[in-house]
Amino acid sequence: MNRAVVLLSGGIDSTTTMAIAKSEGCELYALTIDYGQRHVHEIEKARLVSKFFNAKKQIVVSVNLREIGGSALTSSIEVPANRTQEEISHGIPVTYVPARNTIFLAIALSWAEVIDADTIFFGANVVDYSGYPDCRPEYIRAFESMANLGTRKGVEGLTEFSVKTPLINMTKAEIILKGIELGVDYSLTHSCYDPGEAGIACGRCDSCLIRKKGFIEAGITDPVRYAL
Amino acid sequence: MNRAVVLLSGGIDSTTTMAIAKSEGCELYALTIDYGQRHVHEIEKARLVSKFFNAKKQIVVSVNLREIGGSALTSSIEVPANRTQEEISHGIPVTYVPARNTIFLAIALSWAEVIDADTIFFGANVVDYSGYPDCRPEYIRAFESMANLGTRKGVEGLTEFSVKTPLINMTKAEIILKGIELGVDYSLTHSCYDPGEAGIACGRCDSCLIRKKGFIEAGITDPVRYAL
Question: Which end of chain A has less neighbouring CB within 10 Å, N or C?
Fold first, then answer.
C-alpha cells in the first residue's frame, strides 16, 4: 500500500482530495496545520474528516504565522464580505497568506521523509482564486524539484517525491460532485474564513460565497448552516 | 537600506552570517525558529545576538516538529557523542531533521514577502556536514526558483527573492576568523545539540566537537564553557 501524506484542512478541497487519495488505494497520513488562523474551528473538522476516512494517522502541527501576519487570516486585517464573483476571481485577496503553501508543503515533506511516503496530496486549485501564485502547476513542479534536491531520500535516489493536486483544474461544483461520487460527507467540512464563536459559517466571506455557489451549481444541498 | 531576513539560531554560522549581512549594509530582520529542538537554550542566545547586532526586529516563530520526529534533535533518539572527524564528516547523521531547512526557508520567505525584503541570509555550510542534502548550492538555487514562482511579489515581478549563503564553502575556522574580523562576540553564541539544564555545552556532540576544532584551527580561544 502506498503511503501518502494528505494536507487536510477540513474544507471541501482537502476533504475531497483525501477521498481521491483513498480511492487510489493509498494509506492515509493526514497532516493538519494549526497556523494561528482565524478559523481554527476547521482543525476540529479535520479531526472528524480524518476519522471518517479511517486515516492511518493524523497529526496537527502548529506553526505560529501570527508572528508574521500580513494576511486577514492571521492578523487583525478584516476579512472582506459580500464581494461579487468578479471581485473574488481577480487579483490576490487580503486572505492570501504569504508563502503559506510553501510552509505547508515543507512540513508535509518533512513528515513524508520520516514515514517513508513518496506522495503528498494537496488540494490546490487555480479556478476559484486565479490570483494565488502558490496554487499554480508550475509552482508545484518547482516545489517537487526542490524537494528531491533537499531531502536525504531524494538525493540518495530512494524516493522521488511527488505532489499530487487532483483538483487543480476543477470548478467547485465539479469537486463537490467528485466528492459525492466517492462518498464524502460534506456535513463534516468547514469553509468559512470568519466563523462565529460556535463555529457557524458567516455566509459572506469569499470562502462561504464560493462554497454556496459550488453547491448550487452542483445541484446538491449544502449540509452546512450559515449565519446569513 | 536593503532589508534582509536573517535565519538566526544563535550558533556560530548564523551569527557570522548576520555579521556579514550587516557589513553589506542590510537592515536586519532576525528570524529564530523554535522547532521543539533539544537545544532550546539557543533561542535565548539568538535574542542576545540579535540585540548585539541592533537588528531592526527579531521574531521567534514556533513550529512543533516534535509532532513529526525522525531526528535526534526533535525526538528521544540519542544524540551521538565523541564521534571521530571521519564519522562526523561522512553520511547523514541522526541529528538531521528531515526537510528542516525547507521549513525554515519557507517561513523566512513568508516574512520576507510581508516586510518587503528580497534577500534571505542563511548560514548553510557544506564543509562540516558534507552529507546534508539541504545545505547544497543546487538545493538553494531550486528553493529560489520555487520562491519566485510561489509568491505574489515573485510572480508580479516586484521582487526577485534570493537566498544568500556566504559561508557555504568555508571551513569552521575560516568562519570564525571572518566573524572575529567583523567584531562578532562568540561568547553570545551556542552550538551544543545536547546541553545540560543550565545550558552548559556537553563538549561531546558533533556540534561541540566541530566548534572546538574550529576554534583550535583558527588559533582563537573559544569563550564558551564545556561540561567536558
Answer: N
